[in-house]
Amino acid sequence: MENSKATFVVIAEFKVPARSREEFLELSRFDSERSLAEEAGCRQFDVSTGEEAQDIVVFYEVYDDRAAFDVHTTMPHFATFSEGLQRLGVETVGVRFFHRLYA
Q1: What DSSP state is assigned to residue 73?
Q2: 17 contacts 55 by C-beta, under 8 angstroms
Q3: Could you say which of 2.70.98.10, 1.20.1560.10, 3.30.70.100, 1.25.40.10 is the CATH number of the domain covering 8-99?
Q4: Residue 28 — very low, low, confident or very high, per pLDDT cuts 50/70/90?
């Protein structure tokens, strides 16, 4: 295994109504940028859309450990993001947690 502290991975998938797509992507950018800038335990936060299914958005997040992710969920930018999910009618398809074995 690479000598790296980043070992906890979160993959979240969202289904976004077409009318809310641009605003949701901007909200996602805000959450990603703030997470990387303000959370010492956040190592990576990618936002991707489906090649053919533009209504699907996937987050790939890497944290030092589960505790660092738990801190993420207490941050003001996460609260703003969570509120936006409801307001924009975005469906959380799934959130999965993984432990990275090697890089």
Answers
A1: T
A2: yes
A3: 3.30.70.100
A4: very high
